[in-house]
Structure formats: structure tokens, C-alpha cells
Sequence to fold (183 residues):
Amino acid sequence: MMRKLSFLLLASLLFVMQGCASTITKGADRRTQGAFIEDGTIEDTATVRIKNKYADKVHINVNSYNRKVLITGEVADDTVKADISRITGGVQNVSEIYNELTVGPLTSLSSRSSDTLTTSNVMFRMRDSGKDFFRAERVKVVTEHDTVYMLGLVTHAEAEIAKEIASTSRGVKKVVPLFEYID
Fold:
């Protein structure tokens, strides 16, 4: 029964989440309400501007946390990759850009679904870590090409727990911490 429930939950997540896998909830998030709202605006504005210029010629995901932007996906060449950084940098309130775009063919739906499952697995394992001081909601997890990117306002101890959980999760080939440390 538990396996069936887990499968249904993961299937629901696949349906709801498009593109690469990314998740976070507001709850214990340390961002101010203003930063939380600005991050959503940054993601939406950058995505629309990029899609308006490149349409279906690129697969991009824009994730913002505390005004720092992670761009993942695939593009045709280095010129497009640089242009997407420029477009994103032109969005109001962006303070830093991590351009992790891959030059190459666009990923398949199967690959993107696998990334979604990986993100879900990492998040579930973080929530079930048993560490009283650690709150999974403080970490934004983004998976692209089996690489897990982690953003958040965390202590060094929280970062170590998150990195350990992610690096030992099924399907993860690499972990890239992009944290801001508060201690």
C-alpha cells in the first residue's frame, strides 16, 4: 500500500512539474516575503523573455533563490548560452547568475521525468533525515542531467546534511551546492 501511495505521489509530481525538476515550499524558508516574491517574478520574467526569443529551440529552466539565478537546460551553442545569461541579467533584481546550460541536443521527456523523480527522492530523504535542526524547506533542489543543484540560505551544518543526502540518493551523479551561508 505504501509503495502504491508513493508511486501515486511521484506520478502527481511528474504531472505538475514541467521542465527540469525543482521544488521548494515557503514554510521554513529563510527568505523575506519580498525576496520570495521577487524570485518568482525573476523566474517568470526571464523565462518569458528567453522563450520569446528562442521558442522551442532551447530547453531552459530558470530558478531563482534570494535573487541568485540558476539556469539549466540545453542550448545549440555557446553564443545562445551567453545570450541567455545576458537576457537573464537584464531582469530587475537579479544579483548573480549561475549559467549551467549544456551545449547540445535537447533532452527527452524520459530524461526530464527521471530528473523529476530524482528531485522528489532527494526532497523526501531530506524531510525524513531525522535531524531536528534541519528543515528540508530551506533548500531548493533542482535536478538536470542527473546533477543536483542546491540553493538556499543555510548554515554550514545544514549544507553538509543536504549535500550528504543528495550525494547518496539514487540517480544522482553529481551535487553542486550553490548555498548562501548564514553562519
Observations:
- The radius of gyration is 16 Å.
